[in-house]
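Q: I have 101 residues here and want to know how they pack in 3D. Can you give me a structure?
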Amino acid sequence: MEFCPKCGAVLMAKVKNSACPRCGYTQKGVVALKSSEKIEVATDIPIVKTNDSPNPIVKEKCHECGHGKCFTWVMQTRASDEPPTTFFKCVKCEHTRREYR
């Protein structure tokens, strides 16, 4: 943030020959600031795709087919002060559901 040397007002933009909004003071030779930020694309949530998964199998009834075994994993999908989300994927029909606690 820069201030006008004449009146002390805040100079809003750093552009060549920018003028003070209050007194009209012109600041010569100032080059516009440019910034850039590299943003990486977020990866998808990993989902179990085969029965050869390292994820543990638990006794949990599937809500779709009624089978009694599901793969399970836990991820922090919300704010850090919220409890994690537990995912269940049926071994038989591969229906995936999540549980918030």
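Q: Anything worth noting?
A: The CA atoms of residues 19 and 26 lie 4 Å apart. Strands lie at 2-3, 10-11, 18-19, 26-27, 57-59, 69-75, 85-90, 96-100.
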